[in-house]
């Protein structure tokens, strides 16, 4: 008997389109795209892209704001045997130029607002909406598509990191990486066809395109797509469409909480069975207040663009991980916690997190130096600091760079942030190292207060002094109306120093 073909990045989505073609795949600003329509439109577009020369091993860049066409273009690109290179449209012109030049795409697809940013490149540049309107109509049978077989080793997606510390790195995702990662999250999150995932994250990043979207589509669920994140629009969308789960960064949940605390408005989130936070540790106070305000537990999990997921809560279990934990190791991955010389640390001790997994990226696109720097003998150096308890729960302390070194003391920024976040008047806080001629660095806290609240720097210092060692207490406190964040929602700490 012939063994079944191995799963590719298209397999599960196409299977749902065949079995349940009328089931909604995407909701966006009042429009609905069913799985059958998603399949037909992506096949039609693939035929046109093939006529333009996109084929096996090809590369297509897309630069556009969130819209359902992102998914159609992704699936069409895969059908051509090619890979998608999404680019964040909010990047500066030179940053976009750097990624385009490095990717060397066969085709560029963009929306009208971004056309001027890429039209100067010599590559063929297609307008997204014209492309979709002309070649993705869903009436009648789709035209014939050249028979292209994908393999699990094929390049499916290259997402460039936000570049908060250096030039963006292109994280390579193969078909095997995409499908195995989705299946891992299906198991621990129990994603089913009746679910509806809220996606208010940029589709140019792994968090939006994969975690909030592809995972749901591979499960036959529905993606509730928003153009961008706004706390009111997200809360209203959940209430109106009865969404069942959401993934986001802690900043998003903090803004949702601050909105209801300031306005006193209430939203019906009783349909939600899961809200998950990643990208940075969620402060304990945020999680407590969020559950009190919405009646929904905010759960941490841990994943990287290079490997999704690594640690997570598991909805098959009756109890949640302990406070502060990002959960347990997800099957299909191995981890080590090591000290500065590479020796494994004991449970309870902090070490750098290394991961090896069937879901790990094979490397960074056309960047052998940074690939070799990050992956050694199959082990990926996350640069994150973590510890585990005796029960196998993991706790992320912070980045190895996200610490203040003051007079020889190493201070984890997250520890100080958690203490300050417990002050009632504080909405958000970020801790960085401020240069100092004698100590090297001193602890600097940048604080955003809740609307209508007041608090002094002296009060914050006093609060910290009561709970932290003297060398960890902020020596500088700065108040701002907002914290700078990347398009992916991560706080840009380099702008706070």
Account of the protein in words:
- The protein has 497 residues and is an alpha/beta fold.
- The protein has two domains: 11-388, Rossmann fold, CATH 3.40.50.12780; 402-495, 2-Layer Sandwich (GMP Synthetase, Chain A, domain 3), CATH 3.30.300.30.
- The protein is 30% helix and 26% strand.
- The chain contains 14 helices and 26 strands.
- It has helices at 11-19, 35-51, 69-79, 93-103, 115-118, 128-135, 175-189, 206-218, 231-241, 250-263, 284-294, 368-374, 413-420, 457-465; strands spanning 24-28, 31-34, 59-63, 83-86, 107-110, 125-127, 155-160, 170-174, 196-199, 222-225, 245-248, 274-277, 298-300, 302-304, 307-312, 328-329, 333-338, 351-357, 375-376, 379-388, 394-399, 403-406, 409-412, 426-436, 440-449, 476-479.
- The strands form seven sheets. Strands 2-1-10-9-11-12-13 form a seven-stranded mixed sheet, with helices on both faces. Strands 17, 18, 19, 20 and 21 form a five-stranded antiparallel sheet that branches.
- It starts with 10 loop residues before the first helix and ends in an 18-residue tail after the last strand.
- The mean pLDDT is 90.
> How many discrete domains?
2
Put simply, the count of helices is 14
Give, in spatial order, the strands making up the sheet with the most strands.
2-1-10-9-11-12-13
Stretches with pLDDT under 50, minimum 5 residues: none
Radius of gyration from the alpha-carbon trace, in angstroms: 23 Å
Percent in strands: 25-35%
Distance between the termini: 64 Å
Task: State the helical fraction.
Answer: 25-40%
CATH class membership of the largest domain? Alpha Beta
- What is the CATH architecture term of the largest domain? 3-Layer(aba) Sandwich
Number of strands: 26
Reported by name, the CATH topology of the largest domain is: Rossmann fold
| Net shape | globular
Oligomer: single chain
Largest sheet: 7 strands, mixed
CATH level-four homologous superfamily name of the largest domain: ANL, N-terminal domain
Category by helix and strand content:
alpha/beta
* Overall average pLDDT: 90
